[in-house]
Every structure is written in C-alpha cells, then in structure tokens.
Amino acid sequence: MFALILLGEKITYRELKLSYCEATWDAFRQCEHLLWKIPDLQKNALILYNKLKKHCREMGHTYEDQDELTRFVSEDMSIESAWQSLEFLKDENIVIREKTLVFLPHLYKSEKDIAMYIGDLLSKCSWQLDVDVRKILNASEMSGEAVDSKTNGIQAHEVEHLKEDNPHNHHCENQFPETDVASTSGTQSKAEVDLDQVMAIEKICSNPVTIISGKGGCGKSTIVSCLFRHLKQIEKEVEAASKDFEEDLDVSEEWDTFDRHWESENTCTKNPLNVLFTAPTGRAASLLSEKTKLPAYTLHQIIYSFKSWRQTEKEVPWKFSTVTVLIVDEGSLVSVHVLSLVLKLLCEHAQLAKLIILGDTRQLPSIDPGNMLADIFNSLKSRGLSVELRTNHRAESQLIVDNATR
C-alpha cells in the first residue's frame, strides 16, 4: 500500500509538478471498498502517520517523541500494534527515527540541510570586514532621525510618489545609495552608543554567520543597511583609487605594494561585496526596502528565480549567482523548508560567504512546522554568533511594546 502511495507521489510530480501530495487517512476512510482490503498493520501505520502529520502541523513541531506518538493512537490500536506500525513506517522510509524522536522526512532533511550549510560557512576561513563601528552607528542614528522627520512632515501620497521615483527600488542588489558616513561623525560624536549594536556590527564583520534578535525599533535593519552602504562606498573608493594608480605607470610598484598589504589586512581572499536583502513575505520585503532604501526580495522570489533560470538556455548567469552576503529579515516568519532551499541555492550556485538573520525570537514562529529563528539563535549563542538588541530607539515602537507587555 505504501509503495502505491509513493508511486502515486512520483506520478503526480511527473505529470503535474506537485510535490508532497499524498492520499490522507480521511480519504482512505471515504473509500470503504478499498479500506477493508488494507491489512491491519498498514492500516494502523496510516493512522499513526496521520497523527504525526497532524500534530506537527498543529503544534509547530518538526518531530515527536516516540512514546508520545504511540500514546496519541492508543484509542485506535493497542500499544503493541502502535510500535509495530512505527517500525513498519521506519522500514519503509515514511518516517525517520533518531534515538527516541520521530521525524517527517522533509522536515528532517530541511533542518539537516540548514545545519550543514551553516556548518560549511563556519568552517570556511572568515571574511573579515574592517570598519569604524562608531561611524556606522552615527550614520544609523542620523538616518533614523532623517526618516522620522521626513515621514512626519509629508502626506501619504507623497511617500508613494517618492517610492516610485526612487531608482534604487528597481535595480539589482549592487546599487547602494550614496551615503557619506564619515560626514556624520562630527555632529554625532557625542551620541550615546548602544553597546548591543556595537557588538552586533562587530559580529557581522568578523563572523560568517550572525543572528540578531530584538523587538521592533531596536535598529536591526538600520545598522545592517548602514554597515553595508558604508562598505560599498569604501569598495568603490578603493576601486577608483586602484584605477588611478594603474593609469599612473610611475607609481605602479607602490600600488602593488599597497594592494598586497590591503589584502593581507583582510583574512582570506577579498570577496566582492554583493548583498542580498530578503524577507519571508512581499509586505515584509517592501517594508525592508523602504527602511533600508535598498532593493529587497522575498525568499520565494530567490527560489523561483533559480527555477526559471534553470529552464532557460543559461546563456547568462543566474541573477543571484554573485551574491556573497545574505540578509534575512523577519526571521521568525521563515519556515525551515524555505530557508534550507535558499541556503542550498546560494551556497551551491552563488558565492555566499556571510549569512545574517534578523528577527525577534519572542514572536510567534512560522505557521509551518519548526521554530527556525529561536532554534538557530540558541544553538549559535554558545559560539558567540548570536546577539540580542535590548534598547528601543523609536519612541512610538517603545509605546507599543510597553502596552503589549503590560
């Protein structure tokens, strides 16, 4: 019976390109002429499998303890029959058992893949980014004040007009708006520095993986966008200087010396800065683009962009093949399945060297099984790769938080 179900899945995918399509237990119950022909072992296995899927979907778990799972079906079969059914499901590769835990295969694979790709990033030689943290935070402070004053002073239709006229919302991720970070240091030198934000920037610059959690208004997306605008500006200045030196034959030797010294200051080979801002939903991506003034995409756009590219003649490279930095906003809403697919594509078909996930571990997780952000945050905390932003820098956001936590 399970062989027929698996065969049906393959046919459904081949003909309709639909994955994970199964005949449910309720569907079998409606076919009484078929149900009575199914042996008790396989019938009990269907009941057990249905309970596991239902519990994972309703409770948000990616696995269940085997003792609890057999207890769930105690009203439908004996404990001995439940254990026999569980063993049958494992032997048929319908479920995966690891010690005392029972997993659905696709969720198990997704979590394993995330762990593998993050492990691969951590095992590589770290790409160090050399920045002045105070300048970055001064720029983010100025940026926040500018946005607040502008938003409060114009009408809603004017905001829409500005968004439509902003060319950076329609270009690829390489197009960073010009920002003179250094110019803000004088006016904001006395501003109080948020030590959590200092730690967050330092971790991003020194580690291949960084997880940042914090409530709305803590400046997660602001400091990240200011950091990479600043780095992109430096990269452009270095490229311009390199071009000038190469054109001057008299100082070519000095430039070679400077170039080698500059690369030695950066651990490992210098990567091109190509940052990809993403979010789980279209609305979240739009807000992220609005806040950062940089292009942002949904995670599903990344996945389907690759699928579309695979169907072409591949005369041009994949749109995101040069991405070196992935930033995922609203991480609590990202399912383990979607994140695993995006990491697979960018690790195997791009040049991903840094992963930054932003979100709030206190928020409700994705409606799909799994609690990706909280799990990764807690797992990497002991390695010094997670940081919590605790200070709210927006008055209106703090009011909302205070009211919500009363």
Compose a concise summary of this entry.
Strand 2 (96-98) and strand 3 form a beta hairpin. The protein has 17 helices and 9 strands. It is 56% helix and 9% strand.
Strand portion, in percent?
5-15%
Q: How many separate domains?
A: 2
**What is the CATH topology classification name of the largest domain?**
Rossmann fold
Radius of gyration, in Å, reads 26 Å
CATH homologous superfamily assignment of the largest domain = P-loop containing nucleotide triphosphate hydrolases
Strand count, sense and closure of the main sheet? 6 strands, parallel
The CATH architecture of the largest domain: 3-Layer(aba) Sandwich
Low-pLDDT stretches:
145-173, 179-190, 257-267
Rounded to the nearest angstrom, the distance between the terminal CA atoms is 54 Å
Number of helical segments with 4 or more residues: 17
Description:
It catalyses: ATP + H2O = ADP + phosphate + H(+). InterPro entries: Coronavir_polyprotein_1ab, P-loop_NTPase, WHD_HELB. Keywords: ATP-binding, Chromosome, Cytoplasm, Helicase, Hydrolase, Nucleotide-binding, Nucleus, Phosphoprotein. It is found in: Chromosome; Cytoplasm; Nucleus. This protein is α/β, with parallel strands linked by helices and 406 residues long. The protein has two domains: 103 residues, Arc Repressor Mutant, subunit A (Orthogonal Bundle); 188 residues, P-loop containing nucleotide triphosphate hydrolases (Rossmann fold, 3-Layer(aba) Sandwich), CATH 3.40.50. Helices cover 56% and strands 9% of the residues. The strands form two sheets. Strands 6-5-7-8-4-9 form a six-stranded parallel beta sheet, sandwiched between helices. Strands 1-3-2 form a three-stranded antiparallel beta sheet. Helix 4 crosses helix 6, helix 7 packs across helix 15 and helix 8 crosses helix 11. The longest helix has 28 residues.
